[in-house]
Amino acid sequence: MEKDLHSLKDDMVAFIEGHGLRRFQGFIKDEMPCVEWSISEDHPDAWKDFVELAKASGTAFVTMSDSSLDAEDVDFLVERLEDLSYLPEEDLEEARWLRNFVGKLGHLQIGFASSGVMFVYQISTEWYESYERLESLADDFDGILIDDTDREED
After folding, report:
1. Does residue 154 lie in a domain region?
2. Is residue 86 part of a domain?
3. 146 occurs within a structural domain
4. Do 95 and 134 meet the contact criterion of CB atoms below 8 Å apart?
5. Would you say residue 149 lies in a domain?
6. Ordered per-residue pLDDT tens for the chain, 154 residues
C-alpha cells in the first residue's frame, strides 16, 4: 500500500473526467445508507471499474473527497492522548509516529447515487487508518472522568 495517495487521486481525477463525468466535492458519511465497493489487493485498479459502473448507471457526476494529515491535527491528537492516564504507551508513540505523514494524502472516497442508493469506493493508507483509530480512542475517552482517589467509607 502506498504511503501517499496524491498520485492515485490525480489518476482518478483524469479517469473520471476522461469518462465525461463531473466531480462534486463531497463526502458520503457512514450514517448514509450505502453500498461499499469491496476492495481486493489483487486488483489495485478496481476504482476504474467503479467509475465505469458509475458511467454505465447514467449518473452525471461522482462525489469525491480526500483527507490529508495536517501538523495541527497530529499535535492536537497527541495532546489529547497525553491527557489520558490509562492509555498504553504504544498508542501515544503511534500518534507521534504519524508526524512522518504530515502533508500526505491518506484517504480517498468516490461515490455516486443510483436508484436511491449511494455506491461508495474508498481507500485509506495504513497510517491513516491508525490516525482514525487513535482519534476514535481519544473521542471515546472524552468526557469520562476517572477518579483515582480512595474515598473514605462513611
Report:
1. no
2. yes
3. no
4. yes
5. no
6. 679 999 999 999 999 999 999 999 999 988 888 999 988 878 888 999 999 999 999 999 999 999 999 999 999 999 999 988 788 899 999 999 999 999 999 999 999 999 889 999 999 999 999 999 999 998 887 655 444 444 444 4
CA 109 to chain centre: 8
Phi, psi (degrees; rounded to nearest 5) at 14: -65, -40
Q: How far is CA 69 from CA 4, 9, 15, 106, 122, in A?
A: 10, 15, 25, 7, 17
Radius of gyration, alpha carbons of the chain: 20
In the chain, how many H helices and how many E strands?
Answer: 5, 5
Question: What is the phi/psi pair of residue 71, to 5°?
Answer: -60, -40
**pTM for the whole thing?**
0.83
Q: How many domains does the chain have?
A: 1
